[in-house]
Amino acid sequence: MIILKQNTSAELQVKNSRFLSEAIIVHSPTEAKEIRNEKKAEYACNHVVYAFICGPQRNIMGCSDDGEPSGTAGRPTLEVLKGSGLTDVLLTTARWFGGTLLGTGGLVHAYTASAQAALEKAQPVELLPMKAISFHVPYPFYEQTRRLLEQFEFEIISEEFSADVVLSGRIRESLFGLCTSALNDLLCGKVSFTENPDISP
User: Fold this and answer.
1) Which among 18, 82, 135, 189 could disulfide-bond with 96, CB atoms 3.0 to 4.6 Å apart, if both were Cys?
2) Is 18 in contact with 102 (CB distance < 8 Å)?
3) Distance CA 61, CA 53 (A)
């Protein structure tokens, strides 16, 4: 799953019309629409076109022409997003009319070029599937366990010191089996893992 590392933007001038495209990290259609509405309120412009793609399978998507002729703005923007391979991304384009009509073909070209310019600045990163887990560690094995977890790039989110040490964190799904096997060897099989819904994987 490919996502944006950070938000990006780009600006174009086409026959005195100004186009400002922004690629923004989002996690749901609701969030995408909320951010688009914020952009609409923020900019004193003629149109704020948008398109988004969400979900691990890139199967949640939508777009809007925001008053531009049907199919000239939102759909071309969505096609640029589809071609990028990105997910969990919103692309908005604000347009300030410059006094010259661009025509349907000109609008398609301008919105496509503006969207592409914003994504050209993007630094896509692969979001690896993760597991969020918790488990107990006896105090005598705490330091050894910490060193072992480092080998498997286990990200410790919290530590709770009670009768035992309760470690909670995230690990890549591809390393989970190897890590748990190594921990069972270290702790003589006296360890059980529980999925932790309080930690986002």
Assistant:
1) 18
2) no
3) 4
Which position has the token pair 């366990």?
145
Domain ranges of the chain: 2-126, 130-195
Q: Residue 141 carries which DSSP code?
A: G
Torsion of CA 46, 113, 36, 74, to 10 degrees: 80
**CATH hierarchy code of domain 2-126:** 3.30.230.30
In the numeric block, which tokens belong to residue 141? Answer: 């094995």
CATH of domain 130-195: 3.30.70.240
- The owner of tokens 């799904």 is 173
Nearest to 4 by CA among 173, 119, 111: 119
Give the model confidence (pLDDT) of 36-61 as tens digits. Answer: 999 999 998 989 999 999 988 899 99
- DSSP secondary structure code for residue 50 in this structure: E
Q: How many other C-beta atoms lie within 10 A of the C-beta of residue 78?
A: 21
H-type helices in 99-141, by residue range? 103-120
Task: Give me the amino acid identity at 91.
Answer: L
